[in-house]
Amino acid sequence: MRSASRRTWALLTVALLFAFYFIWVHFNVPYIAISTTYDGDQFLVSNIEQEAWSAKSGIRVGDVIQELNGGPPAENDWLVWSGNIQTAQNIVVERDGELLPFDFSDMSKQPLSFNLTIVPIMLFTLFYLFSTFIAYKKPDDKPAIYLILFFMSVALGFLAAGTGVRGDIFFLFVYENLYFGSPGYFSAIPCRVFPSPQYKSFAL
Predict the structure, then answer these.
(1) Cα–Cα distance measured from residue 201 to residue 159, given in angstroms and rounded to the nearest whole number
(2) In terms of C-beta distances under 8 Å and separation of at least 24 residues, what long-range contacts does 107-110 make, across chains too?
(3) Where are the beta strands (DSSP E) in 17-149?
(4) What pTM did the predictor assign?
(5) What is the distance between the alpha carbons of residues 110 and 118, in angstroms, rounded to a whole number?
(6) Which residues contact 128 (CB under 8 A, 6 or more apart)?
(7) Is 64 helix (H, G, I), strand (E, B) or coil?
(8) Distance between CA atoms of 68 and 54, rounded to whole angstroms?
(9) Fewest CB within a 10 Å sphere: which of 37, 47, 98, 140?
């Protein structure tokens, strides 16, 4: 049973490493979150996430994207393919005939997002501390291990959301699977851990 305990602590260590990476991205990659529409010769801002740095800097719906990271927006493959600007170092927009530059290179000026940064970090910290307590008290208890897996999946899912919306496709996939998939993944666990018929109704 000691091997189960080692696996649990290894899982917690890996989860912590992922969390450190997610948090690093939160504080080192600008969160821009602009959606655009293309009318044939220009990209118009159609929507902006209100917690994004772009919105708080003054970019508005209806602005025309003239430059993105120092070049024409039409040369940005991600923008052309998706119509979205999820992160950028600088943007120049045109509004009422005037060119307005916006610089996002100084990360110390990025406003903290309550929903995408503060809440996920607090949630992960709480779940991680609780999981380490469970691992210490119940190192070889199978239901406890499943509970730790569930807590880490949800907590990392929240952190991965803030990474995925910055243009990281892999971690957007991780977010969708961990956050939205966790209830389904773990719904069948009770009937495996507890063979009693009274738990079989939890299985999908």
Answers:
(1) 31
(2) 107/27, 107/28, 107/30, 110/27, 110/30, 110/31, 110/53
(3) 34-38, 43-48, 64-68, 84-85, 90-95, 98-103
(4) 0.76
(5) 13
(6) 12, 15, 16, 19, 151, 152, 155
(7) strand
(8) 13
(9) 98
